[in-house]
Design goal:
heterodimer, A: Ubiquitin-like (UB roll), B: 8-stranded mixed sheet, 6-stranded mixed sheet, 9 helices, globular
């Protein structure tokens, strides 16, 4: 595994989307969100936050995927940022 | 000989059976609930039942028919009444031991920082980003811990923030979120008049979020120090999903570029209310007649039409107004421009106007600046709970 890349599991909070991904370490968290939102047809009406569920920490939007923050095999979860009492993404669930 | 046991139980007898429970601590607690919507209703209900002694409910909104599916404290007959007032009435019915105060107003403009300073805890049950940002900054400046609750249809989230070195709510804001927020304001700084989006939600997630929020309030009040606190640590959040069932706690990192962590030095508490003093008076009381009084927000002082030249005195916080204000009734077009100030000195014509008329709320904390040095003064006001004082 090249040291300038990291492979981890990426999933949405509702676990309807999950993938093993390999990204450059220089990639910023906001670009992970942007790429995922595009490929997974996630709602563009809400904001997202990325949490590393393996280490129990939230990653800031402008952070890079540095070795001290994201390890190979970690599980990163894309969570809706709670800017409202409720979001409009999950309206299709019922 | 048969022994006789007589159980004399009070309202809180079952609480007292819990090891370490301190009902007197709860009775002395002062808690602000910001927002009396779906989550706020559940939080207020729990706080009242459990005997949290002093509850301040803040909400600017009125009850709509759609609130009734998620708001245990509201009834059909309450349609159109202020949420804060009705929630306070129902909380008093639930538990007459509890002192409940209500403020129908906007926490951004109608609540002085002194009110936040007097609280043991603020529980944010809000439905907008702007309100959360304002609450976060107020609590940071006041040094008061606060809890943020948020929900969507199948996920709830609760975060605890303190006034220390850790992350605050604003630290989690991404550039995209700032951009999205900026789109809600016109180039004049006024809010666009587009209607807010309607948010789908159920009482289930509101109840889940409220249960965690109140449990965190219990943990915080019972802890002798932050290190002894059970549950969330400061700058930590818990997410609870019910589809699929899942919970997780996450540490929130501090953003070194976050601008919200502005320290506030010693505050001089005054006995004068905003109705009783002017900018001139305050500068004199501070012994800095050549200083400036920082309002802490942009205040519109005048509306001027760039087309017909008509000028009209107008006093309101900029953020409290929307772009409908730009419409000039003289020339029937959106051609007015708001003149604003964020500080006043002794030369300004408004320096002789009582501060209350400049939208300064009771218990406000104002900065007085001269030669780069800043002093803070807290004004007085009516007591929040009449029998207690602030």
């Amino acid at each position: 595994m090249p040291v300038n890349k990291v492979t981890f599991y990426l999933q949405t909070a509702d676990r309807t989307r999950k993938a093993q991904v390999t990204f450059p370490r220089s990639m910023r968290v906001r670009d992970v969100v942007r790429t995922s939102a595009h490929r997974w047809f996630m709602s563009r009406h809400i904001d997202y936050q990325v949490a590393n569920s393996t280490t129990g920490t939230v990653l800031l939007s402008n952070e890079q995927l540095l070795p001290e923050r994201v390890h190979n095999g970690d599980v990163l979860v894309i969570q809706p940022f709670p800017t409202h009492g409720a979001s409009i993404t999950a309206i299709r669930k019922y | 000989m048969q022994e006789e046991f007589r159980h004399v139980e009070d309202r809180y007898a079952r609480h007292r059976l819990i090891e370490g429970w301190d009902q007197e601590r709860l009775a002395a607690a002062k808690v602000m609930v910001a927002g009396a919507g779906a989550i706020g209703n559940e939080v207020i209900k729990l706080l009242a039942m459990m005997g949290f002694g002093h509850i301040l409910i803040v909400d600017f909104d009125q009850i709509e028919i759609t609130n009734l599916t998620r708001s245990a404290l509201f009834r059909d007959k309450d349609f159109g009444r202020p949420k804060a007032i009705v929630a306070a009435e129902r909380a008093r019915e639930i538990n007459p031991d509890v002192a409940v105060a209500a403020l129908q107003g906007d926490l951004r403009f109608d609540l002085g920082l002194g009110v936040y300073r007097s609280m043991d805890l603020v529980i944010g049950c809000l439905d907008s980003l702007d309100a959360r940002l304002a609450l976060n900054r107020a609590c940071l400046r006041a040094g008061t811990p606060w809890l943020n609750g948020g929900i969507e249809v199948t996920v709830a989230e609760v975060a605890l923030f303190g006034a220390g070195e850790g992350a605050c709510f604003e630290c989690g804001m991404s550039p995209e979120m700032w951009e999205r927020r900026a789109r809600r304001f016109s180039c004049t700084g006024l809010q666009t008049s587009l209607p807010d989006a309607k948010m789908p939600t159920t009482a289930v997630m509101a109840s889940v979020a409220a249960a965690y929020l109140v449990q965190e309030a219990l943990s915080l009040l019972h802890a002798g120090s932050p290190a002894e606190k059970e549950g969330l640590r400061f700058s930590e959040k818990i997410t609870i999903s019910v589809q699929p069932y899942d919970t997780g706690t996450y540490a929130l990192p501090r953003n070194p570029e976050c601008l919200a962590h502005e320290p506030i030095n010693a505050i001089h508490v005054r006995t004068e209310t905003p109705s009783e003093v002017t900018v001139l008076d305050l500068l004199s009381l501070a012994g800095r007649p050549n200083g400036i009084v920082e309002l802490g927000f942009d205040l519109i002082t005048e509306l001027a039409c760039v087309h017909c030249g008509h000028r009209e005195p107008f006093i309101r916080p900029l953020d409290a107004c929307d772009e409908n204000l730009l419409y000039c009734e003289k020339c029937l077009r959106d051609s007015r421009h708001p003149e604003t100030v964020s500080w006043l000195d002794s030369d300004h014509p408004l320096s002789r106007v009582p501060l209350a008329e400049l939208c300064i709320p009771e218990h406000a904390v104002l900065g007085i600046k001269k030669d780069g040095a800043r002093t803070h003064f807290q004004l007085s006001g009516r007591p929040i709970w009449p029998q207690e004082g602030v």
